[in-house]
Amino acid sequence: MSKKLTIAIDGPAGAGKSSTxxxxxxxxxxxxxxxxxxxxxxxxxxMQTGLxxxxxxxxxxxLAGRMHIEFRQLGSRQHIFVNGEDLEDEVRLxxxxxxxxxxxxxPLVRQNLLQTQRDLARNAGVVxxxxxxxxxxxxxxxxxxxxxxxxxxxxxxRFEQTKAKHPDLTLAQVLADQLERDQRDSSREVAPxxxxxxxxxxxxxxxxxxxxxxxxxAIARAKEAETDA
Length: 229
Prior knowledge:
Structural class: alpha/beta
Shape: globular
Strand order of the largest sheet: 2-6-1-7-8
Number of helices: 10
Strand content: 15-25%
Number of strands: 8
Helix content: 40-55%
CATH class of the largest domain: Alpha Beta
Largest sheet: 5 strands, parallel
Radius of gyration: 17 Å
């Protein structure tokens, strides 16, 4: 049996990291850890308790430190549970996603979630995705992937995914939000988005989700064979 790997997938917002990581984990028989959902969970609970990033950064960081997070497989979907409560649907709300980027820039939030992320990845056979997995969370990961696409392509995909629920939203608005988030994620002081030096780069423009998954699975299989040699 091949040695199971710890795989880190990083990349900008809208690159398809979650869908790709989930598909790669399924193909390899690995566990998928959605780090983005963890920050979304902090954002959701902060919103529920009336906390704002501008005024309550310290309190939000402390909130992150009190959260017990786990992932459970329910049918064909993996759900995030926080303090025993299933919050999978809540953390996917657009307004929660919008706040999660700002929440993730709070140093104390990242500090308090860092050990949780490392604990979840302690055993091999894990695919974890985010923006700083290969550079900060799991710098010793067996395989690092930087998954990206042009801002226009990422905006187009997000627009197609959300236009049914948000008919007033325009592609131009989505692109503007995309560029703003890219700037915020890459320029923040704590754990900015950047490509790990030893990461394999996968540019997904013009590729289907299945093609992207296939590309990364092939890279992982080669790495498994290399570690077995």
